[in-house]
From TrEMBL:
The lineage of its organism: Bacteria, Pseudomonadati, Pseudomonadota, Gammaproteobacteria, Oceanospirillales. Belongs to the glutaredoxin family. The keyword Disulfide bond applies. It comes from the Bacteria. It comes from Halomonas elongata. This is Glutaredoxin-like protein NrdH. The gene is nrdH. Coiled coil: none annotated. InterPro entries: GlrX_NrdH, Glutaredoxin, Grx-like_ET, Thioredoxin-like_sf. Electron transport system for the ribonucleotide reductase system NrdEF. Keywords: Disulfide bond, Electron transport, Redox-active center, Transport.
Length: 74
């Protein structure tokens, strides 16, 4: 499964999301919206204003959502 996280360097919820994904043994790609302006546009197009935005297969969400991460792992 492909997991992409739209993030920024000082985002505490982003770092919590990385730790939770690592704990579940899931691979992911991080996109820093401060370095890639088009990524910020993507986040807005998905309807979000809060980071992280996690895109996994055909679903997506924003914020630190450990229950959603556990669902991905199962």
């Amino acid at each position: 499964m492909f997991i992409k996280i739209y993030s920024s360097p000082d985002c505490m919820q982003c770092h919590a999301t990385y730790r939770a994904l690592d704990k579940q043994g899931l691979d992911y790609t991080v996109v820093d919206i401060s370095e890639e302006p088009e990524a910020a546009d993507t986040v807005r197009q998905l309807g979000y204003r809060q980071l992280p935005v996690v895109v996994a297969a055909d679903e997506h969400w924003s914020g630190f959502r450990p229950e959603r991460i556990r669902q991905l792992a199962s």
